[in-house]
Design brief:
The chain is an all-alpha fold. It is built from six helices and no strands.
């Protein structure tokens, strides 16, 4: 059975304040693109059910919050987490700059990437790096080519 967050994201934002001590300070993974990722740190796919399970059961040093939130509050929290920079829809992207903005700009300035983009870098991005999933899981071959062509020529 798939659970979907039917809660109130504004109430969830308030509840998230108790989580932000770790998830904003850097002691725990940042969650600003949680639902834009393919897999969670425990290896399971990103879904409402799997995120909810980690919150309730804890994982890798994160304590269980099973008894910290009532069911409606958990729905609110999940609704808020879903608002945190989800993976952009393909239709919203405009060629190379759009792909760069959607997938790279959070960590890379537009001017820092092209000078360093060699074949090793392309492979690293294709296979995943620095905690990001492989780009091939999000973009098809034609879209990745457009992105890499843009990165090689952008100034």
């Amino acid at each position: 059975m798939i659970l979907l967050a039917a809660g109130d994201p504004e109430k969830g934002r308030e509840l998230f304040r108790s989580c932000s001590g770790c998830h904003v300070s850097g002691r725990a993974p940042k969650l600003d693109s949680l639902f834009g990722k393919v897999t969670l740190r425990n290896g399971s796919r990103v879904s409402d059910n799997n995120v909810r399970e980690i919150v309730q059961e804890g994982f890798n040093g994160m304590p269980s919050f099973r008894y910290s939130f009532r069911p409606a509050e958990m729905d609110d929290l999940m609704a808020y987490l879903r608002t945190m920079k989800e993976r952009p829809a393909q239709a919203d992207l405009a060629a190379g700059p759009g792909y760069f903005k959607a997938w790279c700009a959070r960590c890379h300035a537009a001017t820092e990437f092209p000078e360093r983009l060699g074949e090793g870098s392309v492979q690293q991005v294709e296979e995943g790096h620095a905690g990001t999933p492989p780009l091939s899981e999000w973009l098809d071959g034609a879209a990745r080519k457009v992105l890499f062509d843009y990165l090689r020529t952008a100034k």
